[in-house]
Design goal:
8-stranded parallel β-barrel; globular; about 40% helix
Length: about 290
């Protein structure tokens, strides 16, 4: 396994917060994300420009953004959008570097998550990508239900690869395979990630893996062995899409990932003192 590469770790408080049962006060979100900005993550997935009716927890994303302190950090911000309206709102903010779009290969989940078909969502990706280019943003496309789905929708790896190739043909440079409900096996993670990295060497291929405390390491090792350098996680392993409508399997736990990656020499820019502060805030928020 080649450990002479730099890992990008994307911390996802938005994913942890979005399905939380009670509303997390805006001031507490600001405090938490400001703490995360000091830790040394590559990117913070901090909020989303989506319908407040659909995701009420993220209704204050614009207010949260106003409260963030970005003048002493190299960490970038990513916002999730689900349609062109959300993208138009997000691209006006210089503070945001990335727009993330959840593109599902499950028709059922795409309808649930973005209220659009897969075909319409593909058209939206094209429009949003043009908006990103025009406004000097980068677009990250998440392949939701990328390892299978619980709805009985037709799924196979070839479907995933076909859509990834279509997205790359639009000009998308970053693709993240999302194990939305935690169904992936380590073997599947390794096979699919390895194939895409080999076939698309100019494209950044990442993973957004949901896992349990028992299988996170197997999945992470599988992606690392495939050559993956982009990983999403969330402190305390909380999160999952509330639109999935199933018992959620949480995000891969950053508290487990960090020491593992540091031990292997893949991360060396993490501020331990600031991490402890962020972890304490996470404990206070997610109770």
């Amino acid at each position: 396994m080649d450990f002479q590469r730099k890992i990008k770790l994307i911390e996802c408080p938005r994913d942890a917060m979005q399905g939380w049962a009670h509303f997390i006060p805006t001031a507490k979100k600001i405090e938490y994300i400001n703490a995360l900005l000091k830790v040394g993550f590559d990117t913070i997935d901090f909020g989303s420009f989506v319908s407040p009716k659909a995701i009420p927890q993220m209704a204050d994303t614009k207010d949260v953004l106003k409260g963030l302190t970005l003048n002493n950090t190299n960490t970038k911000l990513l916002a999730i959008i689900a349609n062109t309206r959300g993208a138009e709102e997000a691209v006006v903010y210089d503070e945001i570097s990335y727009l993330g779009f959840p593109f599902s290969v499950s028709e059922t989940f795409q309808q649930r998550n973005t209220n659009a078909s897969i075909a319409d969502s593909f058209s939206n990706v094209e429009l949003i990508h043009h908006l990103c280019v025009k406004n000097r943003k980068e677009m990250v496309v998440y392949i939701s239900m990328g390892f299978g789905n619980p709805y009985g929708d037709v799924y196979n790896e070839e479907i995933v690869f076909e859509w990834v190739n279509k997205l790359v043909a639009l000009g998308i440079k970053t693709i993240s395979l999302a194990d939305t409900v935690g169904v992936a096996t380590a073997e599947q993670v390794n096979k699919m990630t390895s194939y895409l990295i080999q076939q698309l060497p100019e494209i950044e291929i990442g993973v957004h893996l949901h896992s349990t405390p028992l299988n996170w390491k197997d999945k992470m090792d599988a992606a690392l062995e495939a050559g993956c350098t982009r990983f999403d996680g969330a402190l305390k392993g909380i999160g999952g899409c509330p639109m999935a409508g199933d018992e959620l399997v949480g995000n891969m736990n950053t508290e487990l990932m960090l020491p593992y990656l540091i031990q292997k020499g893949l991360l060396n820019n993490i501020n331990d003192a600031e991490l402890k502060k962020a972890m304490q805030l996470a404990t206070e928020i997610f109770i």
